[in-house]
């Protein structure tokens, strides 16, 4: 592995932290939407092959480590589950981007951002 690979984790497959619930199917997405009627629900769409997406994910995870609100966090590996990502774009009328964060409340997207605009301020 090159020096840059070691620094930036080129060959590392990211391991989502334990607070993430994986979305791997339409059923998982439906559960996330249903959950949004009970508490804020966040969907993080991540491209596992993109350096920018990896960096944004790591930074976001650091930001939310000590969040003291009732929020559910969902993680979508969009390379493995692109059809689910397309369904999200269709259902919420939000153009697909990666990385992308979508905040749901009562079954509707109340906030969303991509790339460096992703931050905890979208949730609180």
UniProtKB/TrEMBL annotation:
<dbReference type="InterPro" id="IPR022551">
    <property type="entry name" value="BrxC"/>
</dbReference>
<dbReference type="InterPro" id="IPR036249">
    <property type="entry name" value="Thioredoxin-like_sf"/>
</dbReference>
<dbReference type="Pfam" id="PF11009">
    <property type="entry name" value="BrxC"/>
</dbReference>
<protein>
    <submittedName>
        <fullName>Bacillithiol system protein YtxJ</fullName>
    </submittedName>
</protein>
